[in-house]
Amino acid sequence: MATKFLTVLTLLFLGLSACEKAELILTGSLEVTVTNSNGAPVAGANVHIESLSRTGTTDSLGRARFIDIPTDRYAVVISHFYHESVDLVITVTDHPVARAVVALPSDPNIPSLHFNHPNLDLPSRLIAGDPLLLNVYANNEARSPLTYTLYSSIQGVVAGGPVEDRIYTEVQGLNIGIHAMTLTVTAESGHQTTNAFSVEVEPVPPAPVLLSAVLTNQGVALTWTATSSFAFRSYTVKRASREGDYPGSIEFYHNPQDTTYLDTDLSFGSDAVYSVVLNLYNDTELTSNTVGIKSSVDRLDLDQPIRELLMDDHRSRLYVTSWGTSDVKVFDSRRMTRIGTIQLPGAPQIMEQSPDGKEVFVGMEGQGTIAVIDPDRLDLVRSLPVYAADPGPDAVTYPIEIAALTGGNIVYTGYGELAGKLVLADTRTGETVAVIDEYPFTVADLVHPPGGDLLYAITDYHVRQFSVTADGLVLVQEMLHGFSSPIRGFVPEDNRYVIVGSEKHDSRDLKRLVSTFDTGLLDLSADGRVGIGNYAIIDAEVDNLIRPFAGIAMLGALNEAAGTSFFVLMDKPTQIFRLPTVPE
């Protein structure tokens, strides 16, 4: 019994000793915070205590906690797939909590991306059919091979392939809609870097509609529909014409709501065809319908440059010759329609109508003849031989100035054998009545009043007044003028003055200057009140502008019976324009 009691006491003593020894093992806690090189927390990093074979994982704040760890020094390994591992030794005590902050360097295999295009801060917008440009620099420190994949939320994988320092490709065929795009670049080690961006693909906008083009007193007013497309760059107003005498593009608008334009530069007397082009940012041009505008100025269009005009007020006809042709075209000056063409044996020069209007004389270039036309029959009725001082097969004459006088005579001069001569001839036979060749003047401009008994010959430097008799021409008076080139002259039916170039002289005393003009004349009315100048229709009495031209006229003819003026502009040599002589 005593032995049994001693045994129990011994066991109790041993138990108390074991408990006392266990209370001597101290424990503590460990908290490890893991960041990247920029100080941002790294979630999912493994924190491994080697001697304890315990591993923790960092939370969203980058923290991993261990409790009830025996106090000791521990070797800890911190690792993460996208970072290099870090080894450290941490001492755990029973108080306070052992803490360590570890910055993991990035793994050199991780791809690094730099976007040149598209801009990740802004949604990209495309027009259907346009490619998406992907321009991204991609590499890693390890310089290991990389591949990329571009994924669309609408169409799946739309591009991919190996990467050589840069991804540069145009992604074709994106459907209309808003694409959530994901670009993933993968290293050979499996490390990936991903970026997301948005691309909106819109339908191609409709072309603008040119609603109207209206001719007003200020110009042509255009109106078209607006666009709401984000791809708008500008509108271009285009103007085309048959004559092609002005540029096609005339105005640019850079506001999509600017949908009107007033064209104030429409070339005088020209038809125009207008359109509007919508220019998109991708250089696409969407062209509207066209609207044509007919010029309000009456005109005749010919194929060749016009050489001479002659107005026949007896019949309301206009005779026209052109350079490079051998005919006279006859137009109705009221209806502006062609009524006939008279064929000639050569190139026509000057035209002159007889005082009674029954014949038209046409000097023929190099033919040695003057053609006589019947205006009623619209036919060549005869040819008059031209005077030659040395007649023969080699004689060349160019009658370029003709004056048809009353009494059945004409006076002509010209080049070649006619140089420096005035020839008075019979209009029926062409027989020479008299020749004046004692004056060394160049080709004259011949003008005379309707009476037929006076003739003015205007040369480079002289004005000579002749009386016309049955025996020939008798010099009455002459004067020097101040013009150094061939000029034109005009005289009204009452012969009260003669116009030489831009000067008006008293016909009784040529040296007396009556007045001057600001422009040379191309035609003068019979009463001397209205003239066609190079720049305008003018009041020839006081030299006031009646109607300015939109250009420089080189030919002109007055239709006094109809109160209209015909003229040809230098920049439109194939067109004859008609305007009322006095504006309505």
From TrEMBL:
Pfam families: CarboxypepD_reg. Keywords: Carboxypeptidase, Hydrolase, Protease, Signal. PROSITE patterns: PROKAR_LIPOPROTEIN. It comes from the Bacteria. The keyword Transmembrane does not apply. Residues 1-22 form the signal peptide. This is Carboxypeptidase family protein.
